[in-house]
Automatic annotation (TrEMBL):
Keywords: Membrane, Pathogenesis-related protein, Plant defense, Signal, Transmembrane, Transmembrane helix. Residues 40-176 form the SCP domain. This is Os02g0472500 protein. The keyword Transmembrane helix applies.
Length: 229
C-alpha cells in the first residue's frame, strides 16, 4: 500500500511538473510580469501599448530609432532631478515617475497610462477623471494617427526614483480642427512652393529663349554687315 501511495504521489509530481514547466520557461523568456510579455524594456513598451491599441481596434505602433533617440536624450536630461515635466518637443509625449525603492518597469508606466481608459468616453471625446487626473496619456497611446513610438527609462541621481518617457509621432491629442488646419496649411504651402518653382522655370526658359534669339539676331546682323562691306 505504501509503495502504491508513493508511486501515485510521484506520478502526480511528474504530471504537475510537466504542466507547469513550459509556463515557467515561457515566463522567464517573455517576462516576469505576465505570460507572453517580453522581458526587454524596449519590446515591453511596444508590446503593451500595442496591446492597448489592439483592444480598441487601432493599428499597432512601430518602434522608431529617431523618436527613441529623442526619448533617451530627454530621459538623460531628467536623470539629475527626476522632475515630472514635459520636454516641449515636436512629438506627443507620455511621462512616468516612480519613487525610489521599487523596481519600476515599462509595465508600470504603461499600466498607469492605460488606467485612464476607465474615465474616457470615445463617443464624445469626454473624460470623467477625478481631480488631478486626466485621459490624455491613454488617448495618446491609442491615437489612431500616431504610427511611431520610442521610449526610454532612467534611474535618477540621489535615489530620486525612476523616470520613464515615451515619444509619439505624429503626436496625438491634437484637436480635429487644428489637425485639419495644419494639414491644409501644409498643402497650401506645398502648392505655393510648386507655383514658385513653375514661375522660376518659366522665367528661366523665357530668358534662355530670349538670349538665343538675341544671339541669332546678332549673328545675322554681323553676317549682313560683312556682306554689305
Amino acid at each position: 500500500m505504501a509503495a502504491d501511495a508513493a508511486t501515485a504521489l510521484l506520478l502526480r509530481c511528474v504530471v504537475i511538473t510537466t504542466l507547469l514547466l513550459p509556463r515557467a520557461i515561457a515566463a522567464y523568456v517573455y517576462g516576469d510580469s505576465g505570460f507572453g510579455i517580453p522581458r526587454n524594456s524596449t519590446e515591453r513598451f511596444l508590446y503593451l501599448q500595442n496591446q492597448a491599441r489592439a483592444d480598441v481596434g487601432v493599428a499597432p505602433l512601430a518602434w522608431d530609432g529617431t523618436v527613441a533617440a529623442y526619448a533617451e536624450k530627454y530621459a538623460a536630461a531628467r536623470k539629475g532631478d527626476c522632475d515630472l515635466k514635459h520636454s516641449g518637443g515636436p512629438y506627443g509625449e507620455n511621462i512616468f515617475w516612480g519613487s525610489a525603492g521599487a523596481n519600476w518597469t515599462a509595465t508600470d508606466a504603461v499600466a498607469s497610462w492605460a488606467s485612464e481608459k476607465q474615465w474616457y468616453n470615445c463617443s464624445d471625446d469626454s473624460c470623467d477623471a477625478p481631480g488631478g487626473r486626466g485621459c490624455t496619456h491613454y488617448k495618446q497611446m491609442v491615437w489612431a494617427k500616431t504610427t511611431k513610438v520610442g521610449c526610454a527609462s532612467v534611474s535618477c541621481d540621489a535615489n530620486r526614483g525612476t523616470f520613464m518617457v515615451c515619444e509619439y509621432d505624429p503626436p496625438g491629442n491634437v484637436p480635429v480642427l487644428l489637425y485639419y488646419y495644419y494639414y491644409y496649411t501644409t498643402v497650401v504651402i506645398l502648392l505655393l512652393v510648386l507655383l514658385l518653382l513653375y514661375i522660376y522655370i518659366y522665367i528661366y526658359i523665357y530668358i534662355y529663349i530670349c538670349i538665343k534669339k538675341y544671339i541669332r539676331i546678332q549673328t545675322l546682323y554681323t553676317y549682313v554687315l560683312k556682306k554689305i562691306k
